[in-house]
Amino acid sequence: MVISMSKIVVLSDIHIGDNSKTCWYQRRYHEPYLIKVLDYIEQNAASIDEVILLGDIFDFWTYPCGVEPPGFRDIVNANPNVLGPEGKLQKVASLVPVTYINGNHDMNIGKDDIAQLKNIRYHKDLRYVKDTPAGRILFTHGSEYTIFNAQDATAKLHPLPLGHFVTRAISEHLERTLDPDKTAADLPDDGNPAAKEIGWSQVIDILKNHKSVAQILLDIITSLMDVSKDTKVHLIGGQTVTFIEAEGIYSNLGAQWIERYGIIPAVKSVEADADGSYIPWWAQRNAIQGEINAGIAVLGHTHIPKNGLAEAMINYANCGYMCPPLPGGILQYPVTFAEIDLPSGDLTIMSAVKPVGPYKPGDIIPDTDVPPDRIVYPPFQDYSCYVSIFNRCGSCLDCAGSTVTEGYYVVSPPPKIGPGECARIWIQDNPGIYGSKGSATYTNPGSKKTVLFEYADPCSLIQNNYCSPAPFRNKSDDGPWVANEVVKRGHPYFVEFTHGSG
């Protein structure tokens, strides 16, 4: 018997630019690694179902303020070995289906641009949901979960977000301070300021007080980079915008995120921008909603590879960084990408370790040192209730109401659960000592019966986890599943209810 082996390969955050010295991707440093990865795909094409380019493949942000960023064709022409008609990406695309999804540094790229590369499919939505033998998978760059880098539909510079101006200020500083023979890639973290220098706690305090996060962030960045706020930033298309003008354009950014998501998620979006934390919180929130209902999420954006998600409803991977800096000629971070084995759904972070010479096995290897990520980070604990309701009856279940006694719904009970469908619900604790507790009431129009589903994960030594009614199975933390007997201790708390017998 022949066993069919197939996988999906996901590349993100290559950041190919025109090789100006402020660009993170430098052809002389990074092209050998990228070509080696594309060689690997070519050599294994028979076992690859699809290659997904998951955003920030190109970079139109890392340029000084006084320079209009290059056009798409300019970047293609500057990198012929990868992007040209005889380039390695074209070779791969002739062998394997390739799908392109926008990130933030390449959000201006459209269908017509990608069509110039031939054989690459442009996916117009930021989220690509794919049904596979391993179940449904959500692919998205991840920048849409971060307040300063998400496409801004309300600003007059739509879709350009505030983060563009942060990057341009940093690039302006690099243009003025880099030695003639040095590039951004020769500096630790590409010359970006450390999180402690930016003072993200100050930004979060401003957000909580409903003041302008745009003003405080641009104040901090322009001061750190010694760039005047009157500096004109040249945008694609010839328009110029000063940092003071940008401050006004994005003045309502914080209020909009709070209104849309609430203050706690808005804070998490700032933290996701600061250091990549809480990106998986957003990914899980998005993945388990009914219209997506994915069991796996694959992201990029943070430049930090992750494999797995501890105590969560989904599996998760972050691709990492494909053009890490090389201070002193040594890679600061590994060159990584993601693979998904089908049909098992196993996720692997792969690393390019030998860029020189023709491809041979061993040049690309699994990176076994990549850790899993988390929904909540120590010293805090996650007192969430992760609830699934399987509808095994022949008719739809209609939601007649829901309650939240403690915590808040990250993903609320859906209005309907169709026959044979599974609804997933997430109620998380607020900061404090109370945990999470809620309920959802569903009616069955066919049988005229009403069912009250209850669930609780108290943050208390004198109260126990709780769920009702049977039949159910439940577990806490990474413990085993137990049927129809409440697992009283441990968190987060997982419950799977089954209604009806089919």
Architecture overview:
The strands form six sheets. Strands 4-3-2-1-13-14-15 form a seven-stranded mixed sheet. With 502 residues, the chain is of the alpha/beta class. Helix 6 runs parallel beside helix 9. It has helices spanning 27-43, 72-78, 80-83, 88-93, 111-115, 163-177, 195-198, 200-208, 213-224, 243-249, 253-261, 263-275, 279-287; strands at 6-11, 48-54, 98-101, 120-122, 127-132, 135-140, 232-234, 240-242, 296-299, 306-307, 309-310, 315-318, 335-342, 347-352, 364-366, 373-374, 385-391, 397-406, 408-411, 416-417, 422-428, 436-444, 449-457, 466-468, 472-476, 482-483, 493-499. 23% of the residues lie in helices and 27% in strands. The longest helix has 17 residues, at 27-43. It is globular. The protein is built from 13 helices and 27 strands. It folds into two domains: 7-374, 4-Layer Sandwich (Purple Acid Phosphatase, chain A, domain 2), CATH 3.60.21; 385-499, Mutm (Fpg) Protein, Chain: A, domain 2. The model has no long low-confidence stretch (mean pLDDT 95).
